[in-house]
Amino acid sequence: MSPTRENFFSKSLTVMPFRLKRNLVLITAGILFTSILETGTMGIIAVFVSAISDPDIVMRSPKLASVLQQIPGELFNSPKNTLLTLAGAASALLLLKNLCSAGVTYAYSRLACKLDTHFGDLLMKNYLCHDYEWHVGHHSADLVTAGTWRRFMSVVWYMGMLAVNDIMLVVMLGLALLYAAPLVTLVAIVTFGLLAGSIFLLLRPRVDKEARTAASSEQRVNKQTSDITQGIKDILISSKQNYFFEQYQKDVTRAANAQARILLLTRIPSWAFETVGFMLLCLAVAGTLAMNENVSSSVISGKLAMLGVVAWRAIPAFNRIVNSLTTLRDNLPKADAVLDAILAMPDSTFSAEEATPLPLKKGITIAGLDFRYGTADSNALHSVNVSIEAGTTVGLVGRSGSGKSTLADLVIGLLSPTAGSISIDGQPLTPQLRNNWIASVGYVGQTPFFTDGSILENVTFGVPADRIDKGHLLHCCKMAALDSLIEQLPGGMEQPLGERAGKLSGGQRQRVAIARALYRNPQLLILDEATSALDQQSENTIKNTVKNLAGSLTMLIIAHRLSTVEQCDKVVWLEGGRIVMDGTPAEVLPHYRASLGAENDLPDSSGDR
Ligand SMILES: Nc1ncnc2c1ncn2[C@@H]1O[C@H](COP(=O)(O)OP(=O)(O)OP(=O)(O)O)[C@@H](O)[C@H]1O
Ligand SMILES: [Mg+2]
Fold first, then answer.
1. Where is the chain membrane-spanning (predicted)?
2. What are the backbone dihedrals phi and psi of residue 197, each rounded to the nearest 5 degrees, phi first?
3. What is the CATH number of domain 358-440+557-609?
4. Topology of the domain covering 5-343
């Protein structure tokens, strides 16, 4: 369904802070005042232009004369004085009107910019507040799209305010003219009103359709750009450049064509108004001539001057109204998509303060746990019961897709169980406890993320420079077998590692990720295939670290390489989301090995990416 203007504006008011709403009211009052001032100015200019050709015209007009006779002094006592007074008043009012217009335009342009920043902040906050489950169900390019589209929110508001500005001006001019020249005004209002209305109604569905096409094509282009940049290695290896380029090009062309048609559609009103406006002027002259056969040329030029002045202001205003409303509709689908993303904001918010880590004294109990991903039609985990005693090391084994990483994400608190429970020292892992618990967990995933920074920045990860504990950092790098790498790098710990740490090998990246997990001084350390890409020597160093940390730290180690979990206190074997067996490595591993048959002690599954 296409979004409606009314819907959009009322929806965005619900997420607008009070100070911006107040600005909006003040600006509307400013627009009203400026339109009244402009109408007065136009009236005086029209009278002045008529008086140039016939200075007596002012006093011959009963309406004007009755008003001007009230003014004392010599301002209007002679044609010359009348002309000079009108010239002075018109200039002064024009200056004042333009100053007010500049002020109001600046105010609503600034408001549009403030809206842009405000909605941008809301959007980013919203993205950061969503839980992990939401993120796994959404494409990351959606944020990029929404981030670049947020400016359309301010464009729509700006166009809305511009339209209000011109509508008020046209109404005021119309009211003033109705008083001065009712017949001509009525004809003009009816003609232009009908013309503006029919142009708008004719263009609206076309603009809506093209705008939706442009918006959805641009969204797909962003997704394709994100896929291409992230998957360039695989694209090159499989020689699929042409396939990805064609997909991308198809949508870029569709978006560009739609945008070109919108540009044409938005120009149509000005051509129509120009033509009809001039025709109307000719008709008015012909009508005046027909009705007043003996009328002097000065009277005709006086009426013409009035019509000219009105046309000078009213035609562009009509034109701008239709243009602003059409541009508004062009941007509405994008702005509405951003607004919907903002409105889907979760209730929770993130704190600027770091959460206090939760100590783990007794252990973690997982009871009757079921889990299903939002988009899946079956459970990823079924009735899982596991206890992890504090200070022990638990190995998690199972074939690919058996649910190991999912279970780790549930233990961390990134995912919430569909049924059953997870308790930390007997306390259920509720959303209230989650932040403190996450602060206690060190985690190395199968595809760790790296910023475009140094080892120092990637290990301390988000800790401000003045709060980095250098001694602890060096110690963690040593435990993660990173010390020799740091010595080799010309810039040492501060050497930039490139985008996604691209200048490091897969094993080196894993070690940086392990050092990062250790730097947090975690209560629970989760290593999900964290050493799969390491050589034997590096893995031995990490194993020694793990051994030395045993007792002071609780660990959950997921590995396909069984030698990695041989020294654990306990091994849990998962298959198809269910626990097959748990016990000491000596009890479980022989059965697991037997079940694997020839695939015994699988090689790395997640090496260098
Ligand atoms: N975001 C998701 N949405 C839907 N299903 C998912 C999602 N992530 C994982 N799954 C499914 O959940 C099941 C368990 O996946 P999980 O990643 O936990 O397996 P795993 O044991 O860690 O495998 P591997 O050893 O290959 O890493 C799989 O069947 C997988 O397809
Ligand atoms: Mg996994």
1. 24-52, 83-108, 155-177, 183-203, 271-291
2. -60, -45
3. 3.40.50.300
4. ABC transporter transmembrane region fold (1.20.1560)
